[in-house]
Amino acid sequence: MAYATVDELAAALRTSVTAENSAILQRCLDAAALEIDDAICRPADDPLDPTDPLAHSVNLMRGVEWFKANDAAFGYLGAGEDALRLPRSTFARHAAALTPLRRAWGVA
């Protein structure tokens, strides 16, 4: 379950929701929500509040990244001398931001 709406993601992308893009916008939010849920390691009996403002913000930011990833074929954005290589772990900074919501930690 996403922590933001398709309308909010479209607004963050400065576009409108249409019949053609609504499914991809929802997939981007759902993918981001799965990453959020994986990062916070919460047990089934302690689910995250779906209205949590931090999860909402990260869901939107990461949803934008998922949407724009379609323009970054083969790990590069742009072409020629101006091409930028994308970082390998693009979710790491979001995972760090989600630390206050985390309930379980691995054992080393």
Walk me through the structure.
This protein has four helices and two strands. Helix 2 (22-40) crosses helix 3 (53-68). It has helices spanning 6-12, 22-40, 53-68, 92-97, and strands at residues 76-77, 84-85. The chain is mainly alpha-helical and 108 residues long. Helices cover 44% and strands 4% of the residues. The model has no long low-confidence stretch (mean pLDDT 86). The protein has one domain. The longest helix is centred in the first third of the chain and has 19 residues, at 22-40.
Main features:
108 residues, mainly alpha, two-stranded antiparallel sheet, 4 helices
Average pLDDT, rounded to a whole number, is 86
Q: What count of helical segments does DSSP give?
A: 4
Annotation, overall tally of beta strands? 2
Shape field:
globular
Strand order across the biggest sheet? 1-2
User: For the CA atoms, what is the radius of gyration?
Assistant: 15 Å
What's the number of structural domains?
1
CA distance, first residue to last residue: 30 Å
Look at the helices and sheets and give the structural class: mainly alpha
H and E order: HHHEEH
Report the helical percentage: 40-55%
Give the amount of beta strand, in percent: under 5%
Contiguous uncertain segments of 5+ residues: none
Largest sheet: 2 strands, antiparallel
